[in-house]
Amino acid sequence: MKALIRTMWGDPRNEFRRPLHIFFYLLSLPYGAAVLARNRLFDSGALPQQDVGCPVVSVGNLTVGGTGKTPMAIRVAGMLRDRGMRPAVLSRGYGGSSAAGVLVVSDGRQLLAGPEEAGDEPVLIARRLPGVPVLAGAKRAVTGRYARENFGADVLVLDDGFQHRWIRRDLDIVLLDSREPLGNGFLLPRGPLREPPEALERAGVVVLTRSEERGDALGGPLAGLVAGRPVLRTRIRPTRLIATDGAELPLSHLAGRRVFAFAGIARPESFRRTLEGLGADVAGFRALPDHHRYGAEDVRRIERAFDETGAEILVTTEKDGVKLSGLAAAPQRVFCLAIETEILEGPEALETALRVCLGAR
Length: 361
Prior knowledge:
Layout: H1 2-9, H2 18-44, E1 56-61, H3 69-82, E2 87-91, E3 103-106, H4 115-118, H5 120-128, E4 134-136, H6 140-151, E5 155-159, E6 171-177, E7 205-209, H7 221-225, E8 231-243, E9 248-249, E10 258-263, H8 268-277, E11 281-287, H9 296-309, E12 313-317, H10 318-325, E13 335-345, H11 347-359
Parallel strand pairs: 1-5, 1-6, 2-4, 2-5, 6-7, 7-8, 10-11, 10-12, 12-13
Antiparallel strand pairs: 3-4, 8-9, 8-13
Helix pairs in contact: 5-10
């Protein structure tokens, strides 16, 4: 699968790849036409957006893959909670088995659904946000009304909600990876874009993620698309190591130690670079597909590779730790690297945008 994606999204000047590039480009044309027609119907009001009766903040992106939406959604919901609001987070529940219209992952006090049922991201959000209800379901207007009526939510945060236009929102926060803000510039499946770059006109705030790795990413046509909008620069910052038994260790515990790491996220190589940046000697690394569902055989292979490399510590992402938590055969001593969004530039702009959003009702 990774080789196919590299072929689809790689350099079209490669003679071997050119026929496949043409094929996937042709496939992207009907997709692009459908996206354009859908957006025009929403923009004109022919497809109505449902109002749930309270402010709605969406956190999303233009491309597929990991731009850090979930950590940003956690950051935004936490800011709202700390302001004395009663936020609820609404997730699609991607990767979960539940077909319920409304799945309460957390009521703000306790976890009520696991990763198999809800998907990994809603459970991760629920664990990180005590006091904040988290709900999953395909129709955010339905889960939003449920949160209003049953938990008294007075503001809703959509995790990965930019393309979910069926619910009226008061603020769209759109994340772009500083390294490749628009990918290769092509729509799916020829490229990673879910929508044309012009969709940024709907954004209220633009967030450039991984800004520590790249300077100014706002050159060329992107500068015109985000003109007049607040632009934040952020990075994903590791905070601590959390063991399966709940014990916590400082990041300095990794320095100079041989580590075997594994990750089932959109950009697993970024996780490896993070560990190396913390001083770990990564003796072995296993990359798995995003939202990978672990089984007993996965655990056996990971533990075997861990033993073969002679590593001292077994480390994975917090998101993978959530998925392993529901597995009876999970490794007994694996450390999860906890992360958070750090705003490098523009925190005041985000505060202002949220204040305007909340005062608009």
